[in-house]
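Thread: sanity check for a docking pose with magnesium ion

Original post by kr_44:
Hi all, I'm comparing my docking run against an independent structure prediction. Below are the sequence and the ligand SMILES. Could someone generate the full complex and paste the structure tokens? I mainly care about where the ligand ends up relative to the chain.
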Amino acid sequence: MMHPRAESDQNTTPFDAVVCDIDGCLCDENGGAFDLTSLAQIREHNERAISAGDRPIVTVCTGRPIGFAEAMTRLIGNTRLPAIGEMGVWLHHPHNAQSELDPAITTEHLESVLGLENHFHEVLRHEGVTMQPGKAASVTLWHEDTEHLKLRVFPSVREICEANGWPFRVSMSWYYINCDLAHISKASGIARFKEITGFSSDRLAGIGDTTSDLAIREQVSFFACPANALDEVKDVADYVASKPEAEGVVEILSMISEMSASDRGEEVH
Ligand SMILES: [Mg+2]
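Reply from moderator J.T.:
Ran it for you. Here is the predicted complex with magnesium ion included:
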């Protein structure tokens, strides 16, 4: 088991880690340019967390492919804690730059993924549907006509999964159909993270903005949202930032750091 912090540091901060979603939290949903000013502040937070041990390290938990999660992890200077990618399919370990598939994903599960990918190549691709590249054990589909995706493609994908006995949880977000293995989620990813780090729920904070982040909420003792979060996510948050996206995350981290300092009776720098 890996214990990234020394035992003596365990109780000097209210949390050991902050598990943060990426899209809508560290960057925008629509492919916009990175807010480097805010991301640099998050990196400074992490550098201090690692060197002084006086605040929790921020890591990421995302539905994006693991390569994107690795890049964001390096950008925000988390060199210690595992990152969770592809909705819990992967953990990426910064200390040895290796990514690890959840051992609960079997060869049989991967055959179901191949079956659905083949259905995409044989049928859906010719109907104007695209598949997000870079995923290993989940399938994410998009069509420029969101109504068509919702009313035609979504039910047909559910049907083909049922007919073939492929064990997917098929869900619809704003612009995508997400097909995730039913036993894998952000929650199962965080459970593995806890097993490896030895951190318990009461030592974790989380940040998220949409419904898949409700699984983060379940696994942490303190949950916060940027201002752009969906109402149903804000409703279960302990704190909602006044600012959106990465600026909101900076605001949340500064609030968490104040909690750390007030526990120790110190001024915040
Ligand atoms: Mg999000």
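The mean pLDDT is 93. Hope that helps with the comparison, let us know if your pose agrees.
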